[in-house]
Write a structure and sequence with these properties.
D-amino Acid Aminotransferase, Chain A, domain 1; eight-stranded mixed sheet; globular; binds pyridoxal-5'-phosphate
């Protein structure tokens, strides 16, 4: 299904004009939410982040209640896949539009190999997160991120792992990362300017709900080569194993399948909580 400003349109009508600033300036924001048997997982968190992105990128007067209702309505028709929603600035500043569509499940690899690259455009901890208002906005300006995915692919890796200027691990171009050392799980801190990933938040919740130690840590790529396991996290990738970073190969820690299972349980728990309300 395809919606523009809440109105259902055909696939042919679902078009963003080239004149829209979202196309030629990347002046837009977006969200992607997973559907589990008609249910949108972590919808409130996604809407909260969408509102934050709107504020950071100066999209005023957006009706998020309407967006939320449309998302729920459309998603209820599907068993699996994703809802994607983009707000584009429009051809002129006063014409922003909401584009919403359903997308089938994307096949993701069982495991990832990553090539580390410096990410010059990311704040990387050089600025306090509140010092610059648009740090970590989920904007549609993803060309820098994607260029590193393409570079990694060219070099025979699945994707890229972005680092700050001091070799501190940030995130992937379209996913968060976490690592395991001696049975404990670690994630990078948000002050590095990484996206406030909903899946990373879920991992923190898993730590609270189950007997898993999840801590925040800044780690250099050199130290990451020494950990037991690394995994990637996103709406489409719940704890996928990283088998290789640069020349370093990893084996899968026994905790990783356990975490993956907890992610499934968490979806079920949220779903039954929502249905009983
Ligand atoms: C740069 C970046 N980091 C992390 C993530 C993971 O975020 P989430 O768990 O909310 O999907 C994404 C997802 O698109 C991303 O683009």
């Amino acid at each position: 299904m395809y919606l523009i400003n809440g109105k259902e349109v055909t696939k042919e009508e679902f078009q963003i004009p080239v004149e829209d600033l979202v196309i030629w300036r990347g002046d837009g924001i977006f969200e992607a939410i997973a559907i589990h048997q008609g249910f949108l997982f972590a919808l409130e968190e996604h809407i909260e982040r969408f509102k934050k992105s709107a504020q950071k990128m100066h999209f005023d007067n957006i009706d998020f209640d309407k967006i939320e209702k449309d998302l729920v309505r459309v998603a209820s028709n599907y068993d699996s896949g994703y809802m994607r929603v983009i707000i584009g600035r429009g051809a002129s500043k006063e014409e922003s539009k909401v584009y919403m569509f359903y997308q089938d499940l994307i096949p993701v690899p069982d495991y990832y190999s990553l090539q580390s690259h410096k990410a010059h455009w990311m704040s990387g901890g050089d600025f306090q997160i509140d010092e610059v208002s648009n740090i970590a906005a989920k904007s549609t300006s993803y060309a820098m991120n994607m260029s590193h995915t393409r570079l990694a692919e060219k070099e025979g890796f699945t994707d890229s792992l972005l680092l700050n200027k001091d070799n501190i691990v940030l995130e992937g171009p379209s996913f968060s990362v976490a690592w395991i050392k001696a049975g404990k799980v670690f994630i990078p801190d948000l002050d590095l300017g990484i996206l406030d990933s909903v899946t990373r938040r879920s991992l923190i919740e898993i730590g609270d709900n189950y007997d898993i130690d999840v801590s925040i840590e800044r780690i250099s790529i050199e130290d990451l080569y020494e950990v037991d396991s690394v995994f990637v996290l996103s709406t489409a990738k719940h704890a996928r194993f990283v088998n290789k970073i640069d020349n370093k190969e990893y084996s899968e820690d026994k905790l990783l399948p356990v975490i993956r299972n907890y992610f499934k349980e968490q979806v079920e728990r949220e779903k039954s909580r929502k249905l009983s309300n």
